[in-house]
Amino acid sequence: MKKSRITSVAACASLALAATLLAGCTASGSTNNTSGAGQTITVWSGQNQADRVATTQKIIAGFTKQTGIKVKLVAVDDSQLVQLTESAALSGKLPDVMGAVSLAEVRQFETQKLINTDAAAAIVKNLGAKTFAASALSLEKDGSTQLAVPDSAWAQVLIYRKDLFAKAGLQPPTTYAAIEKAAKVLTKSGQYGITLATDPADVFTEQSFESLALGNGCQLVSSKGNVTVNSSACKQTWDLYGQLAQKYSPQGTQTVDTTRATYFAGQAAMVSWSTYILGELGGLQNDELPSCPQCKGDPQWLAKNSGVVTAVQGPDGKSASTYGQATGWVVTKSAQAAASEKFVEYMMSNGYLKWLGMSPEGEIPTRTGTATDPTLYSDGWKKLQTGVDTRATLSSIFDGKTMSALESIPSTLNSWAIPQGQGALLGSVETQLSVPKVIGSLGAGSLTPSQAGQAAVTAVQQVQSKQK
Q: Exposure string (b/e) for 21-45, b if CB count within 10 Å is 16 or more?
């Protein structure tokens, strides 16, 4: 489930409909109009749910009123973005701007030479590089070249029962040792120490594994393209994941849905999930309410008794690391540059909090503020309401320590392959589910941790060989 979005998703546009939309896009060329006023730009957005499209249209109306630049908005399902972009490039009908683009997609588009990197650099310069979280900004670079402008981030986090940990005298699960100890101690009759994804058919499983791997310095690949997912650091991660999945987590294939359900029922002391779970954990969505015995009288009981670990450190890790995704704005190579730059700058300033407000738990600001007000957007984010059937701010549900940890995610963000310049490989590995398939076998006990590491190397190398 790409980007781990678990909110209700509107029906995806068919490729035939998408082709119709593409046919209506006007090919963009260079312009000498430095103000952009009077021009019309085409913007593709991965925020394709009906309510989010409506919100984006309202933001656009404000932009047009301020600048005189009109915007044609096309909602695109993110699972189709790469294919649609390739088709648009071949037909000479690329949009001017694309929003909510993942890190791997950005790298793939750069490999295909579809990005106006000068425009991205100009936007960051105009907004002020120091107003962005450095880690998020770095992930959108290739060396010193700015590829895209990061707008928000989500992370795979470890949620745990503070009450159970306190009763057992356990430290928060911030290290490999603490996680394994807690899982062992808290696994007893009617309760699992952790619920962990092993579904071979979902990238969510890889995200759960990667969130542990990065904290131990375990990388998918080196900068030279050597597959390293069986390094000594990775072997420790395979061993930990295998122990947790086989001994302390529910047996059978565990999915994005079953892991959440088990934790919500009060049957597990820990769960690895994305930050998109936080609204549901807070009792804000009626079809995904926490169902633990104590939750019947108080839908927010589980949230109040849960802690959130955003960064885990392994024995070989130099520092704790956060796995997550930064999504960003891309200006294409054929864009009307002046108008496109103004649009992205508006979305990252005047329209920023409204954009983040579509899903605050999964859209943590990568731009914290302005040069004159460094915390303008991070402070504003805390006041944004989230939820489906009930609306509330995250800060009204979770304690200050948790909110501070969430706010810090963009500054500790990390990802496989992107820093090594191997983002195109990562995209293919994720699409082909190379790692989840191995984890599924590891969780079922049909592979030892050592065998799993070697199987992952082979699987990634097979993907790699097809790209050459």
A: bbeebeebeeeeeeebeebebbbbb
